[in-house]
C-alpha cells in the first residue's frame, strides 16, 4: 500500500531514516520502498512510501517526530482540473466508506512555501463539491480528516528545494506526529542541564533510531545529565547510564537537580542503574554479553567537551613514584584522568556494542565530520558485527557537522570477529591520525580564518556543496 | 544500585582474574516499588549469574530466592509468577544506597554513594 508521507521541513537527512527505523519497530520486515512525486527534489516534504498496512502507517506517524502526516492519497495533479480527474478515477470502494452520512469530517488546506488567505482556502475547499461528502462537518473532532495540500514551483533562491513543479495533493489522514512532546521536554524547562545536554527533538530522533520501546534495555555510556535516556524512557524503555565524571552523574546541582530528578520531572521511571566507570577499562564481568537492546550516545569528540579516561599521571605530592597511590591516601582518592581521543573512544564504543548488544540490537551515536573534507568521501568507523543502516548529517557550522550513525548488529561477537575488528580499527586509525591528538578537532573547528584576502577570494569561488536550506538553516 | 547492576559488574584492576562476584557491604538499603514487567525479567533471567544474585540479595537482607538456579522452563512458563515476582524484587526493587562492593581477590573496595557505584580505578590499578 502506498501512502503519501509529508514531513516537516527540518532536519532533512533524519526524516526517511526515522520512518525506516519505526517501520522495523512496528513489524515491517523488508526495507521500505520510497517514491518521489513527479519533478520533486529529494528534499521536498512530499514523499510516497510503501507500507504493508494502514495500521503500521498510523503507528509510525504517531511515534515519529518529523512526520507531519501520513495520508491515503485520493488524487494529485499539477492543477485543479487534473486533481479532479485524479480523485474521480480513485476507486469508489476506497472512498465511499469514509463519506457516509453517519460520519463527520473536516477538510484542511495546507501549503508549502506559500500562504493562502482564508477566502482562497474556502474557495479551494468549495471546489471539491464533486466528492460526494454525505457526512456532517465537524472542525473540532471529526471522524475523518481530509487534507488538500498545495505547493508551487520554486526558484532556487527562496530557500526551498529546487526543481519542483506545482503539485496539488488530496488525501485522507491516517496518522500524524505528536510534536507536543517537544515543548514538554524542551531543555529550557529541564531542571538539570549540562553544557552538552542533547536537544529534546534530537534525543527523540535518536531514541526512534534505536527502536526504544517497552521491555527493552537501553544504555548510554556517556550519560551526562541523562538527556538521551530521558527520551528512551519516554518511549517505555528501561535505561542504564554511565559516566566517568562523578560530579555529573552523582552530585548534579543539589538534591533535586541531578540525573534522577530529570526523570522524576516527567514522571518517568528512574534509570535501572547509573554508574561511574571508564569506557576504556569497563568493569563488566567476563562472560556477560548480549544484554542491551540498544546503545545510544553522543560521545565526547573534543569540540565542546573532550573525552577523559583513567590512567592520568598526575604526581601526588610527597610520593616519589608517580604511579603509586600511597595506602593512607587510597580512601577518597580522586584518580586523575588522561585525554581520551575520539578514535580510541569510538573503538571502545564499537567493541562494547559488539559484545553487549543483543542480535539486531542498535547502536546509535553521533560522529563529527569536518566539512572541508566533504569533497573526499568521509570514512565512518566500521565493525564486522555491524551493518550501517542510516547516516544523517546535522550541519553545525560552516566548518563542521555531526552525523548520526545507526548501526544494527548482524553478526554475533566472537574471538575471530574481534581480530577482524582490530584490523578494521587500525585502518580507521590510519585515516584519522590527526584526530588522535587532543585539541586537533577543536582547533580545526575554531581556528580563525588566516588571511582576509583569502576570505574574499574564497567567498567568490567557494560554492557550498550543501544547499542552504539544509540542517539548521531550515 | 540495584542487584541487576551488581550482577553485571566485576573488579577490573589490571591482573585480577577472579573479580566476580563482588561482595556487598551494605550500610543503607532501601526498597522502591517499580512496575512488574515479566517480559523484561525473562529476557534478563538468561543473562543472570544466579549464585551471585542469591548471595548479594542475602547481604541486603532478602533470603527468599531459591539457592539453586531455577530451570529456564519454569521462568518461561506463565504459570508460576511467584518466582518471577521474587526475581523482580531482588533484581529491581532492592537498592544499595550506601555501602561498598568488595573485590573477592584483592579486597579493593568500590564505594557506593547515593546509589551510584564508583568503579573508576586509581592510577596504579589501570
UniProtKB/TrEMBL annotation, chain A:
Its EC number is 2.1.1.214. GO terms for molecular function: methyltransferase activity; tRNA (guanine(10)-N2)-methyltransferase activity; tRNA binding. Residues 447-459 have a biased composition (Polar residues). The keyword RNA-binding applies. One of its GO terms (cellular component) is cytoplasm. Residues 447-474 are annotated as: Disordered. It is found in: Cytoplasm. GO terms for biological process: methylation; tRNA processing. Residues 3-179 form the tRNA (guanine(10)-N(2))-methyltransferase TRMT11 N-terminal domain. Keywords: Cytoplasm, Methyltransferase, RNA-binding, S-adenosyl-L-methionine, Transferase, tRNA processing, tRNA-binding. It is an enzyme of class 2 (transferase). It holds the Pfam family Tmrp11_N. Its main location: cytoplasm. InterPro entries: DNA_methylase_N6_adenine_CS, RlmKL-like_Mtase, SAM-dependent_MTases_sf, TRMT11, TRMT11_N. Residues 189-310 form the Ribosomal RNA large subunit methyltransferase K/L-like methyltransferase domain. Belongs to the class I-like SAM-binding methyltransferase superfamily. TRM11 methyltransferase family. This is tRNA (guanine(10)-N(2))-methyltransferase. It comes from Brassica napus.
UniProtKB/TrEMBL annotation, chain B:
Transmembrane segments: none annotated. Interacts with TRM9. The lineage of its organism: Eukaryota, Viridiplantae, Streptophyta, Embryophyta, Tracheophyta. It comes from Brassica napus. This is (rape) hypothetical protein. SUPFAM superfamilies: Trm112p-like (SSF158997). InterPro entries: Trm112 (IPR039127), Trm112-like (IPR005651). Belongs to the TRM112 family. It comes from the Eukaryota.
